[in-house]
Amino acid sequence: MISMIRIDDRLIHGQVAFVWTKFLGVNRIIVANDKIVNNEVQKISLQMATPDTAKCSILSVDDTIQVLNDPRAESLKILVITNNPTDVRRIVEKVSNVPLVNVANYGRIATNLSSKKKLCDTVYVTDQDIVEFEKIIASGIKTEYQVVPTNNAKPMSDLLKSYK
Questions:
Q1: What residues are labeled active site?
Q2: Fewer CB within 10 Å, N side or C side of the chain?
Q3: Would you give the DSSP letter of residue 153?
Q4: 3-state secondary structure 89-117
Q5: Is residue 3 within 8 Å of 24, Cβ to Cβ?
Q6: pTM
Q7: In Å, how far are 8, 16, 59, 68, 125 from 34, measured between CA atoms?
Q8: What is the bridge-based pairing of β-strands 100-103 and 117-120?
Q9: CATH number of the domain that residue 121 is part of
Q10: CB 132 within 8 A of CB 86
Q11: In angstroms, how far is CA 64 from the centroid of its own chain?
Q12: String of b and e for 28-61 (b: at least 16 CB within 10 Å)?
């Protein structure tokens, strides 16, 4: 079963590998991204960053959707990680059992920060990102900003309201 989907620019790193996987008790990590699936260097790096307590799969978004909809996935505890809200929106549109979308560390790495809106210390978004987040929230799936489990979770809808 899916424990959580996380949006994080860095994908698998210390917070994910050691804090979230332990907190959630996951035994599988799926990195869902159409570009990374074709980048062997990135795939190796992500697999090396995966803790020994979990198996890592790096899949396209469509393959991730197929795996998550497979009845055999119900016996697993899965953390899905993407680095953008578009991939999450694509997943939640086709997978019915997503309990939570967690957002942290997004929008600071890939492009010009000055062209983005700062939602909070670790989340910067474009207008298109806002549209994608609104679609995720509209699906009814709990969508929160929370860097680590010991931080208080904040509804993404509250963060987005400040930019309307």
A1: 13
A2: C
A3: P
A4: HHHHHHCCCCCEEEECCECCCCCCHHHCE
A5: yes
A6: 0.93
A7: 15, 20, 7, 16, 20
A8: unpaired
A9: 3.40.35.10
A10: yes
A11: 12
A12: bbbbbbeebbeeeebbeebeebbeeebebbbbbb
Q: pLDDT tens digit string along 11-49?
A: 998 888 889 999 999 999 999 999 999 999 999 999 999
| Distance between CA atoms of residues 81 and 101, nearest Å | 10
Question: What's the domain count of the chain?
Answer: 1
Half-sphere exposure of residue 72: CA atoms within 13 angstroms, side-chain side: 3
Whether 62 is in a domain gets the answer: yes
Q: How far is CA 32 from the centre of its chain?
A: 8
- How far CA 94 is from CA of 90, 125, 152, in Å, comes to 7, 24, 29
Q: How many residues does the chain have?
A: 164
Residue 141 domain-assigned?
Answer: yes
